[in-house]
Design a protein that fits this description.
There is one protein chain. The two termini are about 25 Å apart. It is built from one helix and ten strands; from the N terminus they run αββββββββββ. The chain is mainly beta. It has a ten-stranded antiparallel sheet, covered by helices on one side. β6 and β7 (about 135-150) form a beta hairpin.
Amino acid sequence: MVSKMKFLPALLGLAVMIAGCGGSESSPETAPPAPQEESPAGIEIADDGPSVSVEDFDPVLGYGWTGELVYAAPDTETGQRTVPATLSISREGRVLTLDFAFPEAPEGDGSATLEISEEGAWINDERVIRREEEDGVLTLLTRQDCIEGRTIATCDYLYDVADDTFSIAKAVTLAGESEKRFGHQYSFRRGEASDPTSD
């Protein structure tokens, strides 16, 4: 497993900051594993399972991404809130840096990192469990044990990577449950790639 550069908790942290909620106690960055019989993350994956390379993200490097963050908000009628967002992405070695800005809530601005493992089986501490390519869009599904509030859970992340679209969606399955709950989704579009850089 690769070094834990905590991209996913950072994304969740941005969503919580935008929501203006979250108590004084923060969840630990790394969740203990759920009991094997309760955790969907406890799955056997073949050594020759799906993988990803940092070059797969070359189409999304650069500036000019505009879009939105949609996050769960149980206190609203729809159960969700939406805020505008912009994004720029840079790369150094096997690490991608995502710089988020929220024009209507600048207190939520921040950066997060994605580190791709050398063999390509992991993004940070998420295991790549599915890879599909269709019509110029690379779709990746990753999974990790996590903590949602004070509850052990499994977090699934769906990445869509293309020249003009980029999105990351999170779903949560609490230990002992089978239903996936919506966490948040970042969705961005760009007219054309701008200033892509790679090593």
